[in-house]
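Work Package 3 (structural annotation) set out to generate three-dimensional models for the target panel prioritized at the project kickoff. During this period the team completed the workflow that converts sequence records into discrete structure tokens, so that structures can be stored uniformly alongside our sequence database. As a representative example, we reproduce one entry of 127 residues exactly as it appears in the project archive.
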Amino acid sequence: MWNLGSLEAEVMDRIWAGDGPVTVRDVAEEINSARPQPLAYTTVMTTMYKLFRKGWLDRSKSGKQYVYAPVEARDACVARLMTQVLGKSTDPEVALLHFVEGLGSERSTALRSALHQLPAEDDDSGT
């Protein structure tokens, strides 16, 4: 996922899937339940600390331990990253056209629906 390593992306996926702030132990147990080779607790702790330092996670003290929460929801993160990538294009209209051409019918329908939900722009033509 985006500028994250594979373990960082896996940690973020687990945190986004959760119902609220999580501890390192919560995430380590969740990840290790699906792995043939378990990760060390300290590996998960270091990864979450790095995500906190990179600005992906918020962290607060709860008793003697830290709890972590995503800085933004997954969908908001995806939207922000898409905007950043589009901003790198020398011709955003062409980039968007290529993007839309690559969408399947289900995602094209979702895009049309999202566009219809946008507020109408003010018409400055005076009509």
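Strands lie at 57-62, 65-70.
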